[in-house]
Design brief:
The structure is a single chain. The protein is an alpha/beta fold. The chain contains 26 helices and 23 strands. The strands form five sheets. Strands 9, 10, 11, 12, 13, 14, 15 and 16 form an eight-stranded mixed β-sheet that branches. The protein has a six-stranded parallel β-sheet with strand order 3-2-6-7-1-8, with helices on both faces. It has a five-stranded antiparallel β-sheet with strand order 22-21-20-19-23, with no helix packed on it. It binds a DNA duplex through helix 4, helix 8 and helix 24.
Length: about 725
DNA sequence: TGAGGGATGGGACCA
DNA sequence: CCATCCCTCA
């Protein structure tokens, strides 16, 4: 059977497993997606299941699309009827189909996290809550964390005045969502979980339907997602879970690796298959990754190997400053480029977004095209959000969030006072802001009345119009176009608004069957669930810049991992978290395994961060890579400051101004020292004079210490 | 209403 | 250093 050709024995075993739940531990680059999609195709081709009996779930839209593309390529059937999508996408589908049973309006809207935050702020104001004691961002996190544990406000911990207040806010927030007919991301999951758990008929229906449930990136599932999967699995269904505990890097957003162990137990998994043959990287790179990750105590255990050769050693570069690091990187990229390696085949990775600035500066000066991943995406842009708010209001009068967003944008002279009166009227009449407008008199009533009349007209005129025309019409009549035309830097925004019309047209075109009057709502859901790629320039040959997190799942011929310094990578904050350092190490593991044949690891002795120069020691992760696998591009002086590299233009380099000043009894900032107990460190700051003098020293993994000069036994390194 | 000053704080991500 | 928020003032 051609489907199974070229699979290795473990992959073959995984693809053709009998009908039992199974866990596939798939190492980086081991053909995880291939196994998952081939499994689906094989199940269908052998008549084990019909397409309608398959549910496959992922985390990102990109992964879901990739999955569908691959399945279509393998099977000559339509993928319609198959449920393939993200957790949120599938929950949305479920809730749309059973909105009544779920207690939702038919046209419920989806809030993205920015929408959610502004709703939280509004609720806090309405309750007269002190925003210093209850910061909106924290409240938002509290609500989401509870929902992701499956807890409603009534079940939230309330053991003192403070936590009771939190629970009250949570309750008020949920009530407001219900009133407005809006649903946040976590709510999509929780609501559909509750729907299935309370409604036996529905639950049994779906359990009988989905015989095969397949889960991608299983290590990233949170508790609620796990329970959701469990609920959906009937006696005649099995789960095929694919994941890699070593690539679990999302604990901070609720991912629970423990789900892998729970899964083995709860589903009596007899088959744990390890995919350890790596088809991506050379041996030295894999050996480095294996050695690094072996420092983690919590592991399910796996060793990547390759049939390819050892390849080159890993290259380590030590720079004096972040500026020199960036400059070196640019030159190296140019050299690789001259040797025939395309720029798009080179990935530049960093731990935090703030690092991209100096890299961009150096690349820009060198004239190297690059593309930065991350940042604002299309549907999150301010002008697009405004346009979407008008569309939401056209779709539903209950949507107070949308109302408040655009009631005075473009400016119509409706200020805070008018809105306060309106909110009071709405509360009294127990109705939405939109519907409360007729109760208001006076000047405020007139301005608001005109706004409501405009929306009503738009709604009426929208009947019978195609979606793109509705959008176009709204842009003109709302005054959005005029507003940005008048703005001096509004050209980009106008372009984005035009792009929104195109997006609507494309959306209509991609619909398999027309959904007529619900098309607008479907489009709005699409906008919330799929915020869209943020930039053009996909096709051009540009260097790829991104955080290590967003590099997960990608691969490059050559990879630069920059900023390998204690405090940055591993990140300072990870010290205070359970399992923090291990997660950082897994992140480093992800970074290393992105490279096919060449891997650069670089760090800087001092770096500008938050406006001041910081003196760091090399990341412990560098020490965890066996010396035999690496080649130092800079002399391995270890502790000595490097000689100043000669640069064509000095302005490209951030040379620390603090360096020449602040010397203290023979010690100076930036100097490397050795302490009897703490080992090697760097002097970061000094304080006091004479016998009281103290030095602040960064001892890397031993932490930052203030030491009294008189007592500390320091020697120059 | 909006421009501008001053304080503040700063990890990573997707839906 | 930088972006963001809040407040003040014209």
């Amino acid at each position: 059977m051609s489907l199974l050709a070229n699979l290795n024995p473990e992959q073959l075993a995984a693809v053709t497993l009998p009908n039992q739940s199974a866990l596939i531990l798939a190492g980086a680059g081991s053909g995880k997606t291939r196994v998952l999609t081939t499994r689906i195709a094989w199940l269908i081709q052998t008549g084990n299941v019909s397409p309608a009996g398959v549910l496959a779930v992922t985390f990102t839209n990109k992964a879901a699309k990739e999955m569908l593309t691959r399945i279509s390529a393998m099977l000559p059937i339509s993928t319609r009827g198959m449920w393939v999508g993200t957790f949120h996408g599938l929950c949305n589908r479920l809730l749309r189909a059973h909105f009544r049973d779920a207690g939702l309006p038919q046209l419920f809207q989806i809030l993205d996290s920015a929408d959610q935050l502004s709703l939280v702020k509004r609720v806090l104001k309405g309750m007269n809550v002190d925003e210093d004691r209850f910061p909106p961002k924290q409240v938002q996190h509290y609500i989401n964390a509870n929902k992701e544990e499956g807890r409603r406000a009534s079940e939230a911990e309330a053991y003192d005045e403070f936590s009771r207040r939190y629970a009250e806010i949570y309750a008020a927030y949920d009530e407001q969502c219900q009133r407005e007919g809006v649903v946040d991301f976590a709510e999509l999951l929780l609501r559909s979980f509750e729907l299935l758990s309370k409604n036996e008929i529905l639950r049994e229906h779906y359990r009988a339907r989905f015989h095969h449930i397949l889960v991608d990136e299983f290590q990233d599932t949170n508790r609620l997602q796990y329970r959701w999967l469990k609920l959906l699995t009937g006696p005649g269904s099995v789960i095929f879970a694919v994941g890699d505990d070593a690539q679990s890097i999302y604990a901070f957003r609720g991912a629970n690796v423990g789900n892998m162990a729970d899964f083995e137990r709860d589903f009596h998994v007899e088959n744990v298959i390890r995919l350890e043959q790596n088809y991506r990287s050379h041996g030295n790179i894999l050996d480095a990754a294996n050695a690094l990750i072996s420092n983690n105590r919590k592991r399910l255990g796996k060793n990547l190997w390759t049939a390819a050769g050892h390849g080159e050693p890993l290259r380590i570069y030590e720079a004096q400053t972040d500026g020199y690091e960036a400059h070196w990187l640019a030159e190296e990229v140019e050299a690789l480029n001259r040797d025939g390696l395309a720029r798009r085949e080179i990935g530049v990775l960093y731990r935090s977004n703030a690092q991209s600035r100096i890299l961009e500066h150096a690349l820009f000066s060198a004239g190297i095209p690059y593309r930065v991943y991350g940042g604002l995406r299309f549907f999150e842009r301010m002008e697009v959000k405004h346009a979407l708010a008008y569309l939401r209001l056209i779709a539903s009068s209950e949507d107070d969030s949308a109302f408040l967003r655009v009631v005075n944008f473009p400016a119509r002279g409706i200020g805070a006072r008018s809105l306060e009166a309106l909110q009071e009227a709405a509360r009294a009449g127990n109705t939405s802001l939109y519907n409360a407008v007729p109760q208001l008199g006076g000047k405020a009533g007139n301005a608001l009345g005109a706004f409501v009349a405009m929306i009503a007209t738009l709604r009426k005129e929208a009947e019978g119009l195609a979606l793109p025309e509705i959008v176009e019409h709204m842009l003109a009549k709302s005054g959005l176009l005029a507003h940005f035309q008048a703005e001096k830097d509004g050209a980009d925004r106008l372009e984005n608004l035009q792009e929104l019309v195109n997006a609507a047209a494309l959306f209509v075109q991609e619909q398999e069957e027309p959904v007529a009057q619900q098309e607008l709502t479907a489009f709005l859901a699409h906008a919330a669930l799929e915020a869209g790629e943020h930039q053009a320039g996909e096709g051009s040959d540009a260097l790829q810049l991104m955080t290590v997190h967003s590099a997960k799942g990608l691969e490059f011929q050559a990879v630069f991992v920059t900023g390998l310094e204690e405090g940055l990578f591993p990140h300072e904050q990870s010290r205070n978290e359970d399992d923090g350092l291990e997660e950082e190490r897994r992140l480093m593991y992800v970074a290393i395994t992105r490279a096919r044949s060449r891997l650069y690891l670089s760090f800087a002795q001092n770096r500008m961060l938050h406006g001041q120069t910081r003196y760091n020691v090399a990341s412990r992760f560098l020490d965890e890579i066996p010396a035999g696998l690496v080649k130092w591009l800079t002399p391995r002086l270890g502790s000595q400051p490097l000689p100043q590299p000669v640069l064509a233009s000095a302005r490209d380099a951030a040379i620390p101004k603090a360096l020449p000043r602040a010397t203290q009894m023979g010690w100076r900032i930036g100097q490397n020292v050795v302490h009897a107990k703490f080992g090697q460190g760097v002097i970061v700051d000094t304080e006091g004079q004479g016998p009281d003098a103290r030095l602040q020293i960064n001892f890397g993994r031993q932490g930052m210490k203030w030491l009294a000069l008189e007592y500390a036994k320091l020697s120059a390194a």
